[in-house]
Write a structure and sequence with these properties.
The chain is α/β, with parallel strands linked by helices. The protein is built from 7 helices and 7 strands. The chain has helices at residues 20-32, 53-60, 68-73, 75-86, 103-112, 154-163, 183-195; strands at residues 4-11, 33-43, 89-95, 119-122, 125-128, 134-140, 168-174. The strands form 2 sheets. The protein has a 5-stranded parallel β-sheet with strand order 2-1-3-6-7, sandwiched between helices. Strands 4-5 form a two-stranded antiparallel sheet. Strand 6, helix 6 and strand 7 (168-174) form a beta-alpha-beta unit. Helix 1 (20-32) packs parallel to helix 7. The termini are close together.
Amino acid sequence: MQTAKNVLRIDASMRREGSVTRRLTDRVLDRLAGSETTLVTRDLAYGMPLVDEGWIVANFADDAERTEAQRQTLAISDALVAELKAADTVVIGLPIYNFGVPAALKAWVDQVTRARVTFRYTDTGPVGLLEGKRAVLVIASGGVGADSPVDFATPYMRHLLGFIGITDVTVIAADRHMMRADAETAAEQAIREIAA
């Protein structure tokens, strides 16, 4: 994997200390980032606003007809979308919470998945507008196996990223961490392989 020029790092773990995904994401970035890399970090542990009725009304209003209040309502979403658009590589530290994604990551997904902005509808179905990017999902779980029948996080994020046009997705998994002594070792090997 060649050195990335513009990287967006998204930390979805609510743990700032002792987080497996944060530790492994650091290692992925050590491999991907060079001296010329621009890194933007979005730490979802600081919170992410939920989509509400005002957001939906503002989002579906024609851009030219949005009020100033509606523009302010979408300001965070616009900033998050701009971060995605600027990145050539997106690295997401994804702990599996209760078989799915953390609530803050779902809130981030809702903020960036916008018709006419990150995807569009066509006669043949939706088309993602963020093509030409790659993503690395750094997954950790206590007992859920990555891509197992009870893992609703990994396939969801793969589908969501593809929906907005990011189809080059690599998964690094330290799964079943509470059950496997070698969970991080296996993830470290996968990190070495993507960097080769």
